[in-house]
């Protein structure tokens, strides 16, 4: 054992630089993984971040009269109490729209528990009694910003002109519109002004628990203690569930990226850690001739390289955690929860051990006869090379090329190690292009109608007239969205009647055809999967008690409701559901500005809303793509550095020969860089080409699997790909240049003299 | 030995025993030096050829000793020898004849011959090693002679190996 | 003079056949060899005669195809690689043509490694190392890296390493093959000293100066022994001089 320790220590000391590089490479990859996972976790469910930052209350109790906070605090398991706060229903009045809200009192001094987190503007101030702070998701939906007018009408009909002073986020209730009504906070006095009658208010109290797992138990205790007072209880579990991004497409894409990212990371770690062993074969043979057993050699290698890799993992975990805590505070991020953190740490540690284990085992099986010093690889100057020399290509180019492809396995590994990250980056770019396509051509994802108008303060019959009168509006399609019952399903499915059969809404039909008559419909992929039908089948749905038989004639791209939507003309609907027309979907002229049209129509008394472009809903993917690109770039870099280090070592003898032949240091550098450069270029080009050609197909696959439907996939533009490829090649060449320059001035090793 | 004596006399005249001592000192133990009788015989011949001349010197209690001088002709011959390049083969090999002729005679097996010769060479090499160890480090001439002999011996052994590969 | 103890190394009809891409290439074809304690045996022969293969097999670095190998009265050709490794630590020291020092370790570490491997404490290993380096004239070089030493010094370090555990058998494969004349002499002298202290040595060489230091010279041709000569000097013999090789005219 002492002998092993002595050799490991000496070896590490002698190769300090390479050892440090390995540790840093692994640490970088792990840190990147952790950062990406943190972003992911928060992106897919912001609940944890909000709840932690606001020191949220696990249980919110709605009672008629305010309970005794001391009594609640005495309950076993309750750590702290928030409130009780008075809360009253009111109506937000906006031009053309009336929205029910809940107005809740909150003190000017932010409480300890259940604290809203101010995102824009400021919190309540007793010097400004007319200020309200609006919950952020509600504010976004209603177009409120700090400084906007906040006119409320109380239950008694009196109007109060308040002002929005800030927007805040809370982890104590879900996002609007899943969680209704919208929430706004104000000072007690203001609430009293809007709703003086305490009988029309309720009391809201929050409990923070010592052990969140005991929520159900404590809820029961609370109900028992408070008896009939309790009107409603909401727990953190419901809030978290509601905040979760419930989108299958996103989920599938994330899974895909996550898996590939992990595999690429694993490969890079394996390369960084395991590649070193190959260099030591000569020493291993010597050790064996001295009397090291196979097991001892394997153990020595495991310890030496495993230690480096594990040190990298530990460093990476610490660095990743530090980055998320200190460098990303502006994004609502809390450090990765323990589960995923442990998973990443143990996963990478395992990868390190496996990556080291295989070469260590192979090293153990080296024959104990130390061979003569390795001869330079035998590569005959092929005909192609000779021709190239004849044509007077620079010798550096030819030698470099021959050099690069003589050693097949390392060449293949380098190329592969760059092709895979490039491929993933290309696919990422494809996703980006797809999202851009959603934004620029919303009609291709079924959002030809930029605005939806409903009757606001004008009678329903005038809506169409007013809308069409606007210069920016090209067409108005009557629409109604109803929930239908379908055979074999326990929940309802969205049925969308839009346009008439003669003049249908411009859905984006990718298979089959558009409906032309009453009784025909098109469906999203999700619906076809759900009901297990195909184009050409008839389906029987029940709408508002009335059965309806529809013939499915085509498939459309359907980003809503995971594709489980049936679309047909409004004339296929029963009259009682279609009259009066609930809304109109407006298609604007290409040069019209949706915001201006919206303002004009609102001024005319219509209620206008804008459907959310799927690209916005899936915006988190852009963040992920960026994060993943960084991770993959790091991985590619780590691979390259490893390949370089190995290659230069092999080259030591070649270098001497080249210099003896009379090549200047600059030419030697050029040869070395060419060798790497050719492999890099090959890897990048292969990866980009494969990735680009696959991206459309893969995205379509994801689309089909998630119900949106295939047909959305886009290939990234040639310019984008070219830029990405050139950047990658440039960076790789730069990385190869520095050690190559140093090696070119390397003095000729003793053994060759 | 003739030219060796001429060279010694060119340096300074000397008598028989002095010449013998000088001869012994040149190579030390590494090379056998002639006895006094052989030296006198050679000196006489040289005198007859007119390359040296002797002068009797009287001594009181001993018989006369002859002191030898180099003549002008002797000096000429010496110069000519030194200045002209040495021609002729330098390797004398009887063993190879034996090896080649052995199968015809039917007396000895080639392998046996080779083995026996090799053993001889190795023992010789051993002796040369010992000689080199005991020779005065300052005597570069002797050391070079021994090294030369060793190199030739190594070459002989290598040749022997080649013969063994090809002829047996 | 027969010795009562078992010979240090004994082979019976040792055979080694390589498979070179399906074509069997016999390297050693039935070698019977016995080396007694304290003997110095040199193995010579043309290249391709199987010398290196033979000595590698004696040290367990290569497996045999047929025949037996006995080391100190114990049958060893059937040992597994790991068992051989353990045996090698205590009983065999190996010196290679290309020195094969571990480049990343200092001279001191290189020489101490076998002792540590055999279970000695760090202090014992160091003591033994100082002793050996002193005996071989390398005391000042303990902290140097092998790359900083000349070829001759490196081979001396390799010799020190081979002798670290006082092996029963010292094996050497062309120990002077990579050295110039002066370094060869140094190494030769050391081998002689070591032999004088009673070390059993078997070495492979093509250099006659090395071979003639041995007690026995074995000649291999085509994987078989063709000559086994005893060349220990006997007092009565007349000593050779340079005249036996070169006849000076003039």
CATH architecture annotation name of the largest domain in chain B:
Orthogonal Bundle
Strand order in the largest sheet of chain B? 1-3-2
- The secondary-structure class of chain B comes to mainly alpha
Instruction: Bin the helical content of chain B.
Output: 55-70%
CATH topological fold name of the largest domain in chain B: Arc Repressor Mutant, subunit A
**Mean pLDDT of chain A, nearest integer?**
79
Q: Sketch the major β-sheet of chain B.
A: 3 strands, antiparallel
CATH superfamily of the largest domain in chain B: Winged helix-like DNA-binding domain superfamily/Winged helix DNA-binding domain
Number of helices of chain A: 23
How far is the N terminus from the C terminus of chain B? Answer: 41 Å
Radius of gyration of chain A from CA coordinates: 33 Å
Low-confidence stretches of chain A: 373-378, 748-753
How many helices of chain B? 7
Largest sheet of chain A: 6 strands, mixed, barrel
First-last Cα distance of chain A:
37 Å
Number of domains of chain B: 2
**Strand percentage of chain B, roughly?**
5-15%
Shape of chain B: elongated
Number of strands of chain A: 20
**Structural class, from secondary structure content of chain A?**
alpha+beta
Could you describe the 3D structure shown?
The complex is a heterotrimer of chains A (753), B (168) and C (250). Chain A is 51% helix and 19% strand. With 753 residues, chain A is an alpha+beta fold. Chain A has four domains: 1-45 and 245-371, no CATH class; 55-243, no CATH class; 372-442 and 614-753, no CATH class; 448-612, no CATH class. The longest helix of chain A has 42 residues, at 620-661. Residues 373-378 and 748-753 of chain A have low confidence and may be disordered. Chain B is mainly α and 168 residues long. Chain B has helices spanning 2-11, 16-27, 36-48, 72-83, 95-105, 110-134, 140-167; strands spanning 14-15, 52-57, 65-70. Chain B has a three-stranded antiparallel sheet. Chain B is elongated. The model of chain B has no long low-confidence stretch (mean pLDDT 86). In chain C, a hairpin with a 2-residue loop joins strand 4 and strand 5 (74-75). In chain C, helix 3 runs parallel beside helix 5 (151-163) and helix 5 runs parallel beside helix 6. The mean pLDDT of chain C is 88. Classes of the chains: A alpha+beta (753), B mainly alpha (168), C alpha/beta (250). The B-C interface holds B 1-4, 27, 29-32, 81, 92, 111, 115, 118-119, 121-131, 145-150, 152-154, 156-158, 161-162, 164-165, 168 and C 44-46, 181, 206-209, 211-213, 217, 219, 221, 226-227, 229, 231, 233, 237, 239-248, 250. Chain B: This is PadR family transcriptional regulator. Chain B: It comes from Thermopolyspora flexuosa. Chain B: It holds the Pfam family PadR. Chain B: InterPro entries: Tscrpt_reg_PadR_C, Tscrpt_reg_PadR_N, WH-like_DNA-bd_sf, WH_DNA-bd_sf.
């Amino acid at each position: 054992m002492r002998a092993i320790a002595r050799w490991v220590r000496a070896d590490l000391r002698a190769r300090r630089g390479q050892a440090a590089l390995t540790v840093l490479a692994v640490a970088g990859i792990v840190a990147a993984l952790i950062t990406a996972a943190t972003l992911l976790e928060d992106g897919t469910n912001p609940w944890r971040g909000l709840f932690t930052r606001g020191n949220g209350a696990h249980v919110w109790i709605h009672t008629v009269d305010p309970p005794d906070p001391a009594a609640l605090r005495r309950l076993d398991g309750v750590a702290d109490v928030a409130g009780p706060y008075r809360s009253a229903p009111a109506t937000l009045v906006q031009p053309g729209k009336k929205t029910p809200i809940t107005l809740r009192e909150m003190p000017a001094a932010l409480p300890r528990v259940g604290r809203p987190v101010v995102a824009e503007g400021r919190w309540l101030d007793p010097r400004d009694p007319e200020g309200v702070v609006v919950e952020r998701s509600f504010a976004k939906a209603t177009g409120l910003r700090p400084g906007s007018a906040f006119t409320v009408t109380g239950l008694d009909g009196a109007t109060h002109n308040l002002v929005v002073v800030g927007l805040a986020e809370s982890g104590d209730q879900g996002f609007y519109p899943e969680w209704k009504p919208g929430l706004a906070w104000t000072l007690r006095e203001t609430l009293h002004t809007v709703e003086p009658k305490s009988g029309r208010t309720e009391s809201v109290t929050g409990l923070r628990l010592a052990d969140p797992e005991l929520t159900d138990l404590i809820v029961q205790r609370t109900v028992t203690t408070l008896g009939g007072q309790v009107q409603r209880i909401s727990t953190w579990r419901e809030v978290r569930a509601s905040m979760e991004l419930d989108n299958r497409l996103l989920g599938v894409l994330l899974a895909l990226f996550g898996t590939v990212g992990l595999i690429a990371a694993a490969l890079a770690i394996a390369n960084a850690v395991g590649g070193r062993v190959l260099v030591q074969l000569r020493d291993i043979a010597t050790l064996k001739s001295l009397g090291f057993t196979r097991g001892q050699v394997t153990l020595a290698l495991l310890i030496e390289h495993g230690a480096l890799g594990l040190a990298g993992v530990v460093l990476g975990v610490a660095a990743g955690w530090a980055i998320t805590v200190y460098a990303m505070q502006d994004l609502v991020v809390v450090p990765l929860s323990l589960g995923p953190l442990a998973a990443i740490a143990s996963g990478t540690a395992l990868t390190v051990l496996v990556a080291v284990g295989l070469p260590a085992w192979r090293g153990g099986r080296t024959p104990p006869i130390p061979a003569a010093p390795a001869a330079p690889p035998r590569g005959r100057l092929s005909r192609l090379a000779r021709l190239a020399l004849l044509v007077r290509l620079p010798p550096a180019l030819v030698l470099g090329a021959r050099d690069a492809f003589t050693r097949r396995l390392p060449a293949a590994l380098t190329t592969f190690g760059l092709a895979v990250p490039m491929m993933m980056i290309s696919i990422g770019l494809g996703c980006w292009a797809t999202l851009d396509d959603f934004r620029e051509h919303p009609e291709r994802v079924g959002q030809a109608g930029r605005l939806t108008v409903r009757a606001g303060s004008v009678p329903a019959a005038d809506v169409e007239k007013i809308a069409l009168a606007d210069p920016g509006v090209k067409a108005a399609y009557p629409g109604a969205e109803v929930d239908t019952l379908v055979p074999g399903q326990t929940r309802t499915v969205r049925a969308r009647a839009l346009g008439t059969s003669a003049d249908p809404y411009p859905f984006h039909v990718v298979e089959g055809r558009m409906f032309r008559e009453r009784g025909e419909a098109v469906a999203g992929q999700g619906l076809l999967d759900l009901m297990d039908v195909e184009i050409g089948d008839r389906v029987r749905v029940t709408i508002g008690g009335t059965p309806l038989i529809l013939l499915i004639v085509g498939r459309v791209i359907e980003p809503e409701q995971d594709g489980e939507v049936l679309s047909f003309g409004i004339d296929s609907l029963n009259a009682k559901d279609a009259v009066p027309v609930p809304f109109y979907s407006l298609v604007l002229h290409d040069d019209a500005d949706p915001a201006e049209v919206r303002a004009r129509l609102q001024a005319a008394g219509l209620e206008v809303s804008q459907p959310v472009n799927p690209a916005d809903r899936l915006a988190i993917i852009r963040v992920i793509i960026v994060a993943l690109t960084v991770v993959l770039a790091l991985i590619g870099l780590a691979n390259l550095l490893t390949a370089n280090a190995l290659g230069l070592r092999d080259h030591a003898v070649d270098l001497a020969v080249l210099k003896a032949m009379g090549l200047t240091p600059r030419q030697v550098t050029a040869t070395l860089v060419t060798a790497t450069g050719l492999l890099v270029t090959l890897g990048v080009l292969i990866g980009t080409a494969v990735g680009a050609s696959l991206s459309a197909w893969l995205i379509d696959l994801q689309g089909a699997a998630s119900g949106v439907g295939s047909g959305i996939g886009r290939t990234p533009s040639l310019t984008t790909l070219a830029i990405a490829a050139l950047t990658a090649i440039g960076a790789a060449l730069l990385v190869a240049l520095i050690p190559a320059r140093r090696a070119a001035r390397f003095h000729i090793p003793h053994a060759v003299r | 030995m003739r030219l060796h004596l001429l060279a010694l006399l060119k340096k300074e005249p000397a008598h028989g025993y002095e010449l013998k001592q000088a001869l012994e000192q040149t190579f030390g133990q590494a090379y056998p030096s002639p006895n006094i009788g052989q030296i006198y015989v050679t000196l006489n011949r040289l005198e007859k050829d007119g390359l040296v001349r002797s002068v009797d010197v009287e001594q009181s209690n001993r018989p006369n000793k002859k002191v030898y001088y180099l003549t002008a002709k002797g000096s000429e011959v010496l110069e000519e020898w030194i200045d002209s390049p040495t021609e002729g083969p330098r390797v004398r090999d009887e063993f190879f004849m034996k090896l080649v002729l052995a199968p015809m005679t039917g007396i000895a097996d080639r392998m046996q011959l080779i083995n026996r010769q090799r053993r001889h060479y190795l023992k010789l090499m051993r002796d040369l090693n010992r000689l080199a160890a005991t020779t005065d480090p300052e005597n570069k001439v002797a050391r070079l002679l021994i090294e030369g002999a060793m190199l030739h011996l190594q070459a002989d052994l290598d040749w022997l190996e080649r013969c063994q590969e090809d002829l047996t | 003079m027969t010795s009562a103890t078992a010979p240090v190394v004994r082979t019976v009809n040792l055979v080694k056949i390589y498979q070179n891409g399906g074509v069997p290439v016999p390297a050693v074809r039935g070698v019977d060899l016995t080396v007694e304690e304290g003997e110095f045996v040199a193995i010579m022969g043309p290249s391709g005669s199987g010398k290196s293969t033979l000595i590698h097999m004696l040290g367990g670095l290569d497996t045999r195809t047929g025949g037996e190998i006995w080391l100190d009265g114990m049958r060893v050709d059937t040992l597994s690689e790991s068992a051989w490794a353990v045996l090698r630590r205590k009983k065999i020291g190996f010196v290679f043509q290309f020195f094969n020092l571990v480049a990343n370790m200092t001279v001191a570490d290189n020489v101490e490694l076998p002792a540590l491997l055999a279970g000695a404490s760090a202090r014992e290993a160091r003591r033994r190392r100082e002793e050996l380096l002193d005996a071989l004239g390398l005391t000042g070089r303990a902290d140097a890296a092998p790359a900083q030493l000349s070829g001759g010094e490196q081979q001396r370090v390799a010799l020190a390493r081979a002798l670290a555990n006082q092996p029963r058998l010292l094996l050497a494969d062309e120990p002077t093959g990579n050295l110039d004349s002066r370094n060869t002499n140094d190494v030769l002298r050391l081998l002689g000293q070591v032999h004088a202290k009673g070390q059993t040595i078997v070495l492979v060489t093509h250099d006659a100066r090395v071979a003639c230091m041995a007690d026995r010279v074995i000649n291999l041709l085509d994987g078989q022994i063709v000559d086994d000569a005893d060349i220990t000097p006997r007092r009565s013999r007349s000593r050779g001089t340079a005249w036996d090789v070169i006849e000076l005219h003039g």
